[in-house]
């Protein structure tokens, strides 16, 4: 696990060791953490790296969205204010009843016991911590509002980004999957809002992007995502207008727009096709 210094005041782990990328920003009177990684044990090591390399006084933890690889480490940081969008936190009651119920977590742990025993072990004492500090559309931190947190939606309904204005750094969360196929199959995924958010990012004064997955990047990656997303949107909408069923679209998906990178996870591709087909079917019908 490498806590890499991105700029004078920002750090990030982008080597895959935390599953979802994580990072932090240091300004006077604030050390702001962005996301917590996949497990409490991973988060504990991340926490230690921050205290050793950045400073001991964490003041806030911002969660970009609810996916497990970004929030399951939150119990390691629960002594600090956990901040998330209102839309994100509104998902928690249902998640705690279903996907994140003790029974579901135990079933997931057992499912990984043979293939990934270390990961399974790290889920044994998992606690889901619900953020209690929320914002509707945006918030700022710092005496000069250096840190701007904005609800974007798109990847998930509650997704948010963190922009460090003085050094032109954007923590994009899972709006960006650098050098890998994006996961766009969440049941709350809104393709239109995702595309709009990426277009808005293109207009921002940004030098470096910390993506939700993959290495550091810049606006070139934004354009790659946009080009593919717009082509995929058009292709799926055309199929729907011609009366194609979801099964038919899935069968023909290889004939659709070519992703910017080789597929590393076929399930992401299939989940994206399914979600986008269902999303646009409702609009077109």
Number of helices: 10
Which outline best applies? globular
The radius of gyration is 19 Å
Instruction: Order the strands across the largest sheet as they lie in space.
Output: 1-2-3-4-5-6-7
Number of domains: 2
User: What structural class do you assign from the helix and strand content?
Assistant: alpha/beta
CATH superfamily of the largest domain: Ribonuclease Z/Hydroxyacylglutathione hydrolase-like
**What are the secondary-structure elements, in order, as H or E?**
EEEEHEHEHHHHEEEEEHEHHH
CATH architecture classification name of the largest domain: 4-Layer Sandwich
- Mean pLDDT, to the nearest integer, reads 94
Low-confidence parts lasting 5 or more residues at pLDDT below 50? Answer: none
Distance N to C terminus: 48 Å
Number of DSSP-assigned strands:
12
Q: Given this structure, which CATH class of the largest domain is correct?
A: Alpha Beta
Secondary structure: helix percent: 25-40%
* Proportion of residues in extended strands: 15-25%
Task: Compile the SSE list and pairings.
Layout: E1 4-7, E2 10-13, E3 22-27, E4 30-34, H1 40-53, E5 60-62, H2 68-71, E6 82-85, H3 86-89, H4 92-97, H5 102-112, H6 117-122, E7 133-135, E8 138-141, E9 147-151, E10 160-164, E11 169-177, H7 191-202, E12 208-213, H8 219-241, H9 246-251, H10 266-284
Parallel strand pairs: 4-5, 5-6, 6-7, 11-12
Antiparallel strand pairs: 1-2, 2-3, 3-4, 8-9, 9-10, 10-11
């Amino acid at each position: 696990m490498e806590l890499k210094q991105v700029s004078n005041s920002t750090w990030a782990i982008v080597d895959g060791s935390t599953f979802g990328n994580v990072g932090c920003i240091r300004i006077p009177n604030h050390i702001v953490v962005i996301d917590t990684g996949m497990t409490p044990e991973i988060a504990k090591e991340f926490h230690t790296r921050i205290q050793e390399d950045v400073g001991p006084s964490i003041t806030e933890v911002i969660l970009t969205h609810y996916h497990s690889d970004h929030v399951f480490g939150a119990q390691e940081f629960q002594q600090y204010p956990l901040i998330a969008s209102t839309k994100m936190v509104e998902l928690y009651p249902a998640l705690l009843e279903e996907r994140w119920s003790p029974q579901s977590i135990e079933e997931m742990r057992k499912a990984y016991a043979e293939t990934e025993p270390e990961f399974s072990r790290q889920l044994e004492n998992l606690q889901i911590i619900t953020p209690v500090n929320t914002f509707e559309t945006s918030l700022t931190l710092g005496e000069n509002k250096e840190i701007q947190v904005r609800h974007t939606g798109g990847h998930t309904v509650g997704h948010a980004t963190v922009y460090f204005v003085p050094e032109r750094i954007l923590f994009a969360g899972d709006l960006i999957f650098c050098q890998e196929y994006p996961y766009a199959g969440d049941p709350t995924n809104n393709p239109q809002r995702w595309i709009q958010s990426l277009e808005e990012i293109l207009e921002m004064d940004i030098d470096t992007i910390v993506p939700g997955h993959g290495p550091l990047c810049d606006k070139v990656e934004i354009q790659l995502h946009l080009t593919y997303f717009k082509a995929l949107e058009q292709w799926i909408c055309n199929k729907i207008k011609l009366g194609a069923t979801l099964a038919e679209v899935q069968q023909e998906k290889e004939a659709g727009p070519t992703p910017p990178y080789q597929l590393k996870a076929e399930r992401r591709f299939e989940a994206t096709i399914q979600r986008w087909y269902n999303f646009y079917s409702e609009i077109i019908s």
